[in-house]
Write a structure and sequence with these properties.
Layout: E1 4-5, E2 17-20, E3 28-34, E4 38-52, E5 55-60, E6 64-67, E7 73-77, E8 81-88, H1 123-138, H2 143-162, H3 169-190, H4 198-205, H5 209-220, H6 224-242, H7 247-253, H8 259-270, H9 274-283
Parallel strand pairs: 1-3
Antiparallel strand pairs: 2-8, 3-7, 4-5, 4-6, 4-7, 4-8
Helix pairs in contact: 1-2, 4-5, 7-8
Length: 284
């Protein structure tokens, strides 16, 4: 299976991740991947296409699509577009699961299993997503309250109008195949500052070291150590950009052995040293 697990970290201080689609400039392809979070794409301008199970779902301005947890998908954006992406952790819906850690949403772009079911009008949901992005980026007085109000409106619409009340057994089984690794990666994100070892994690989740190692290579397309470093680097980078902490403190806060190990990994990933970013920020 040629697909990768995507690491999703919420925006700082918020229970979700919100951003403009990285393929806004066009001529962009995001290969097959999956993640635990539920993902909503709302196209404000331009067009792009989604591929799920080899079936294409083209979207134009004013349309949106819901990508479910553990759903393998790819994205083609040959033209310029303006698309807001909202990624919601699966645990936000735990009171509405139809089976253990399983929930499915339909949208007008994809009718779902029940072809006779009424599909909700997407305009209200698309409006809330666009408004959420505007409020979040403007950050005017009281933006935190307005942001969360809009977010809860979105959650309400999803569970009220878009949730499928029944799920086919095959869908549940297919989801559980990836869910096993999702639970492990979730644990890693919650404990990434600790001295995590493959053997300890394998024992905790009831696997052999070899089986867990193969699981990472098969589904995440990276080994355990690389995936752990990816988590640590994502959080460290955010701290580097949003705090005045020293390089040494950032390294220690995020599970690196010392500032030298952090700087080496940072340069390998971004091509520059973290100290160069710090100097650049100070000059502004």
């Amino acid at each position: 299976m040629e697909f990768q697990h995507e690491l999703i970290i919420p925006n700082e201080g918020l229970p979700f991740k919100l951003f403009l689609f990285e393929g806004a400039g066009g001529n962009y392809v995001r290969e097959k991947h999956w993640h635990t979070s539920v993902e909503l794409f709302a196209v404000l301008d331009g067009r792009l296409s989604f591929f799920l199970n080899e079936e294409e779902y083209p979207l134009e301005a004013g349309e949106l699509i819901i990508i479910n947890s553990n759903e393998i998908h790819s994205i083609h954006a040959p033209e310029k577009n303006e698309t807001v992406v909202l990624q919601i952790p699966l645990k936000q819906f735990e009171d509405y699961f139809t089976a253990q850690r399983f929930i499915r949403f339909r949208s007008a772009a994809r009718q779902g299993r029940d072809r006779t079911a009424k599909i909700p009008d997407n305009r209200k949901l698309a409006f809330f997503i666009e408004e959420l992005y505007k409020v979040y980026t403007a950050r005017e007085v009281g933006w935190e309250f307005r942001t969360m109000a809009l977010y809860y409106n979105i959650l309400f619409l999803l569970v009220k109008d878009y949730r499928e009340s029944e799920a086919a057994e095959k869908e549940i089984q297919d989801s559980r195949r990836l869910d096993a690794l999702s639970k492990i990666t979730t644990y890693m994100r919650e404990h990434y500052t600790e001295d995590l070892k493959l053997s300890d994690l394998a024992s905790l989740f009831g696997y052999s070291d070899a089986y867990l190692s193969r699981m990472f290579k098969k589904y995440a397309k990276v080994n355990f150590k690389s995936y752990l470093q990816e988590i640590r680097m994502a959080y460290a980078y955010r701290e580097l950009m949003n705090t005045d902490y020293t390089i040494s403190r950032i390294a220690m806060d995020n599970g690196f052995a010392d500032s030298r190990a952090f700087s080496k990994e940072f340069r390998k990933r971004y091509g520059i040293l973290p100290s160069e970013i710090k100097r650049g920020e100070q000059k502004k």
